[in-house]
Queue: 2 jobs
Job 1
Amino acid sequence: MTAEIQASRHNATLILTLSNPGAKNALHPDMFAAAIEVLSTAERDDSIRAVVLTGADDFFCAGGNLNRLLEHRKMDPLKQTEGVDLLRGWIEAIRDCPKPVIAAVEGAAAGAGFSLALACDLIVAGKTSRFAMSYVKVGLTPDGGGSWFLSQALPRQLATELMIEGKPIAAERLHNLGLINRLVADGSTLTNALEWADELAGLPDNAMDRIKLLVREAADNSLSRHFEAERRHFVEALNHPHAEEGIHAFLEKRTPHYK
């Protein structure tokens, strides 16, 4: 069976499905390149207002393929870095996408699968789903930005615990910590994510894109620099047609219609 990214549409939402039958949707470099290409196309397609990332067969992603990694140990170190860099490209494509990206997690998100979920703007997870930064269990260290995302989102001690022990953590605990946005019944994450995406599709994409940028840049900005970024985005947004429509609609007590 082939590891692939399946792309489909639901209203104004692009659905990307991780599919690797029989391997719990383990990742393959071919998936990385395909996902980057699809996200690049979505970025230019005004009819797409949101992206949902999910896994086939009620399972999000088991991470990397360990048999493939064993083969990589025989290669030159420069060759070994190619897969890591491709995953980085996919993570950056998710972060750079101007449309909101929602992870719909069933079953488990482990290793690089956890990193993929963390890269998304929003996470919807099944109540019994589990997350694991399990690299240490096989003598490896995180990739895909997993260590950065966890260090930004969680207290240092908890982030260290998750990575240094590699044990799974329940979705409910991550939800209580604020890392997961919505905890829903098992089997309903995709439906819930698509409903959320439909709601976001009615909001001004110009403002959402700028908010994504502000959130992404905040971790590296001093407060002074961030004030400057906020000022720039605010003035640019104020002069965009979406602000004119939104303000008029609010004052006129009607539903805004963004084009």
Job 2
Amino acid sequence: MKLFIGDINSYEVKLRDEEQHHILNVLRMTAGEEIYITDGKGNLVRGNINISGKKIDVDIQERFDEEAKSEYKLHIAIAPTKNIDRFEFFVEKSVELGITEITPIICKNSERKILKVDKIQKQIENACKQSLKIHFPIINPLTPLKEFYQKINQNIYVAHCYKEYEKVFLNQVLDQVLDPIILIGPEGDFSKKEIEELYEHKVMGIDLGRSRLRTETAGIFVSAAFYYKHFF
């Protein structure tokens, strides 16, 4: 199954220009070959390609009913790492594991305070194509921590390394909450003041186990636990 991205309406399917280029110049596909196209919103079409010069159109063979979104949601708000490759690795793997929303956050100890969200969006789409997902996760703009949690009133949990604060285990959260929001801090963790303010805002701490995990590892671990709990 070769999955590509395009616009889908009642009458036609239009592949994105970069997808057409990839088909012609990288995959070197020929007229009549079968492809699948999604719009990232749950719609899926099977068709055969026609080639006219550098343009491709699609003869639609089958439309699939719009796939319903899973009732289970996972939103991770995470501080981008100084080394952008590590953050991009988290994005790729968490998308493959079924994350539904990512919010990059800025914290006191953040070393990266600029993020090209359009590049991350492209990564998300590539990961969805690779893992054959037709609902694309949301990527939000880089947002200050306090601004983020003050907008939300429930289901927020923060992963941190301070031992003096009460925590619940991650599996308890996944057992009891359909749509948790997990906060993961930067290298060096959240500041103590940030943790105190989060707890004052009724955010509960979560325990990710004995090991001190890197930022991207914590994000992938949460995503994998979510995947195992709800989709295995």
